[in-house]
Design goal:
Strand order of the largest sheet: 8-7-9-10-11-12-13
Number of helices: 25
Number of strands: 21
Helix content: 55-70%
Shape: elongated
Distance between the termini: 65 Å
Structural class: alpha/beta
Oligomer: single chain
Radius of gyration: 46 Å
């Protein structure tokens, strides 16, 4: 019985394989028609083959017979001949018209004998393509169309530079074959107040650019398939020489070759190839080409070539800069790149406030020398040249010459002075206080520079999030245009997204301003020109130089008890490391010595010895002979000679002084010093309490901040997933614009929160390390290991043992 049932099941399975096998294993031949030979055609075809192969592998055997890959000669006759050849070839199942001319041509042939995909549509606004409820409605025809391409590009172009006269560069073959359609295309530009003129470009630029109207103010460059890349570079160079701004229909790939601006991203060919592959798969699986939706939206990225802009003196406005990717030359790129450690080290080397504080400490050191000088010998040398009137010298009896030159040397040595010795000790303590003040300021500079760097990163991240949100809004605008084109939404939705773009641009401008302010602040700290440009490197929470990454630290905060002991350890270490406490200790020591000196003043005298040596180097004029003439007085010649004064004199004196009463000043000084000492001790106790409170609080906040990183990240990830679902539903017409706006706003808010959580953690980490009195990322490996060992001993001392 069992064997009988097994035979029946086997026969049924075999029948299914026989019935369905040919459907899924058969070959599918795809024919290709190119408008004409051009350099990129095989690359384009290769990309399409890759996408179709990836999508259908295992289901179908897709082939591209060489006889069915036809290249026309840039005219309708050869294109028509190629298409008819493929229509007549029974082995060809699907045809892809890989050209703007062939895509335009096949869309107007009416019902087709076999499936045809026309993926290269410039703008359905002037090509008058068949359209019925979102698809072509024409038997076997499927085309791919992005809505309102010309109008979208021109709006952006006019935001960058207003113009009224526009030259549109297009393949010469398209002009030759569709002159009437291009006349209709002028209406798209006319309604924007633009007079447009189409200029045909063939295989070379030739004299076409020279023949541009002198009234031309701007150039719109459509795909020029016939033009080789080297000729394209000639084209952009000629436009730059004529100072003509250019907008590339193809987008960033051509902007890099010299066009001023473009809107489409580099991946436009990839997205188009994937859409072609999807449509091929649907046709093979039985969908009718005429019922496959034709609308497609591309992700957009406004790209601006700054080198070209500089060459023609056109610079993007703030509104354009909010969403533009700026392409620079190597000379324009920033060479200076900062990271957290380099920023701090540079600040310690060049910060002006820190250098000024260093000079303050160096100058204060000389107060010690000044105080010591009062205890060392004081030697004074003086010289005097004296001239008196002749009569007085003559009558001085030889004791005072008319002209005298004298010199003296005085030496003084303090043998004992309590105020002088006290002052020396006090100045040493005050210098310690100044040095600790410098260390405190140095820690503040480290924290300030690190925080300023993190603020720059945070501002950049916020600006980047706003820019991504703006890009998302532009993407949603394209979805709204697709919805409008297929009839599932009205123009109001398009206007609503355009309004949202304006709002998002304002947000980006504001974020950019905040980033500029953060960069200016960092440049000030680093003693750089205020708007000097620099690059930055992101901080990583797992960076080994950061305390957050140390494997040992996890066990200290893994539970409530361990974290409590760790906070106590950090608080004690903070007090030991604190320069604020050390600075107050030095000030207290100085005041204690001053108080002692004020007490000693009552009974300790000041004793000094002084020696003086005087010498007369020269006597001249009257009064030098040492005689007195009495002739006039006695009536006869008579004079008295006196001994000449000594030229050399010296003296030695010992002095001891003790003030007995100074009006109560000494009592007041003692009382004042005592009160100031008490004040400093109270200040030290208060500072210790504040340091402990700051350390414990910062650790609590740091722990909460660390935990919030994960939660904020999960919230952001969930919001992004929700946004993707809602956006996909919106593109299918299943949800309203309000729901998409809500989802986008939620994603924006959570992205900002996730970014803020990371940088808030690092900023709080800097605050915690500052309260600790040392920065972990500035320690060497030995210092870090010593800290960990010390922490482990502290835990053991408090009865906590790790497993």
């Amino acid at each position: 019985m069992f064997l009988h049932r097994l035979r029946i099941i086997t026969m049924i399975c075999a029948s299914i394989v026989v019935m369905w096998g040919p459907v899924y294993a058969r070959d599918v031949n795809i024919g290709i028609v190119f408008d004409g030979p051009w350099s990129g055609q095989m690359d384009l075809l290769s990309g399409i083959k890759q996408e179709i192969g990836d999508l259908t592998r295992g289901e179908f055997a897709i082939r591209y017979p060489s006889t069915a890959t036809l290249t026309a000669e840039w005219n309708l006759d050869s294109i028509d001949k190629a298409l008819n050849a493929l229509f007549a070839d029974d082995s060809v199942d699907i045809i892809i018209a890989l050209g703007f001319i062939s895509s335009q041509y096949v869309c107007h042939l009416g019902p087709l004998p076999k499936p045809v995909i026309a993926p290269l549509i410039m703008d359905s606004g002037f090509q008058e393509l068949p359209f019925e409820t979102g698809s072509s409605g024409v038997k076997n025809l499927n085309y791919i169309n992005a809505p309102s391409t010309f109008e979208r590009d021109i709006k952006i172009f006019q935001e960058i530079i207003p113009f009224n006269y526009l030259a549109i560069l297009i393949n010469q073959s398209f002009i030759d074959m569709y002159p009437a359609e291009l006349e209709d295309a002028r209406d798209i530009f006319t309604k924007h107040g633009i007079e447009a003129r189409f200029v045909g470009i063939g295989k070379t630029v030739g004299k076409k650019i020279s023949a541009l109207s002198p009234y031309t103010q701007a150039v719109y460059v459509l795909p020029l398939a016939q033009l080789p890349d080297n000729e394209y570079e000639i084209l952009t160079s000629e436009l730059i020489k004529r100072r003509l701004p250019s907008f590339s229909y193809e987008g960033s790939v051509r902007v890099r070759q010299g066009c001023l601006v473009g809107l489409n991203k580099d991946d436009i060919v990839i997205r188009l190839s994937r859409r072609i592959a999807l449509n091929v798969q649907r046709i093979i699986l039985g969908d009718k080409p005429e019922n496959i939706p034709v609308a497609i939206s591309f992700d957009q990225q406004l790209t601006f070539n700054m080198t070209t802009g500089n060459a023609i003196d056109i610079y993007p406005s703030w509104a354009i800069m909010t969403e533009a990717q700026i392409i620079k030359t190597e000379e324009d790129k920033e060479e200076r790149v900062l990271n957290l450690l380099k920023t701090v080290q540079e600040a310690l080397d060049v910060n002006l406030d820190l250098l000024a504080k260093e000079r303050y400490v160096t100058a204060g050191k000389e107060n010690i020398s000044l105080a010591r000088a009062n205890l060392l010998p004081q030697i004074d040398v003086s010289a005097t040249g004296l001239q008196i009137d002749k009569d007085r010298a003559k009558n001085s009896m030889g004791q005072q010459a008319e002209r005298t030159i004298t010199g003296s040397v005085t030496a003084t040595q303090v043998l004992f002075s309590e105020p002088a010795w006290a002052n020396l000790s006090i100045q040493k303590d005050l210098q310690k206080s100044r040095e600790k003040e410098y260390e405190q300021f140095k820690l503040d500079i480290v924290q300030g520079s690190a925080t300023a760097y993190l603020n720059v990163l945070q501002a950049k991240a916020y600006e980047r999030i706003q820019q991504e949100n703006l890009k998302l809004t532009r993407r949603n605008l394209e979805l709204a245009r697709v919805r409008e084109m297929v009839g599932s939404a009205g123009p109001a939705e398009v206007y609503r997204w355009e309004s949202q773009i304006a709002s998002n641009r304002n947000a980006v401008i504001s974020a950019n301003a905040q980033r500029n302010l953060a960069e200016i602040e960092l440049n000030r700290i680093l003693h750089r020109p205020a708007e000097d440009g620099f690059g930055t490197l992101e901080v990583d929470i797992n960076d080994p130089v950061l305390v957050s990454s140390h494997e040992e630290l996890g066990k200290y905060i893994e539970n409530k008890q361990a974290f409590r002991i760790f906070r106590s350890f950090m608080a004690e270490e903070a007090l030991l490391n604190s320069p604020e406490i050390a600075m107050l200790d030095a000030a207290i020591a100085a005041n204690e010595r001053l108080l002692k000196s004020n007490m000693n003043k009552f009974f300790l005298p000041t004793v000094a010895v002084q020696a003086e040596y005087d010498n007369v180097f020269d006597r001249s004029g009257e009064g030098t002979d040492g005689s007195i003439d009495l002739s006039a007085l006695l009536g006869r010649d008579f004079s008295i000679s006196l001994a000449e004064p000594q030229d050399t004199q010296w003296s030695v004196a010992l002095n001891a002084s003790l003030p007995l009463f100074s009006g109560g000043a000494r009592f007041a000084e003692r009382k004042q010093t005592w009160e100031e000492l008490h004040q400093l001790r109270l200040q030290r106790d208060a500072a210790a309490e504040k340091i402990e409170q700051r350390t414990r609080s910062s650790l609590h906040l740091l722990g909460a901040s660390y935990a919030s990183i994960k939660q904020a990240g999960l919230a952001a990830e969930a919001a992004r997933k929700s946004l993707n679902v809602v956006q996909d539903s919106y593109s299918q017409g299943l949800v309203s614009i309000v729901e998409l706006l809500d989802a986008q706003n939620a994603a924006l808010v959570t992205d900002q929160a996730a970014s803020t959580a990371v940088y808030d953690f690092f900023i709080k980490l800097m605050e915690t390390e500052r309260s600790f009195g040392n920065f972990y990322f500035l320690m060497d490996t030995k210092e870090r290991d010593e800290l960990i060992k010390k922490a482990n001993k502290y835990f053991m001392k408090n009865g906590f043992y790790f497993n």
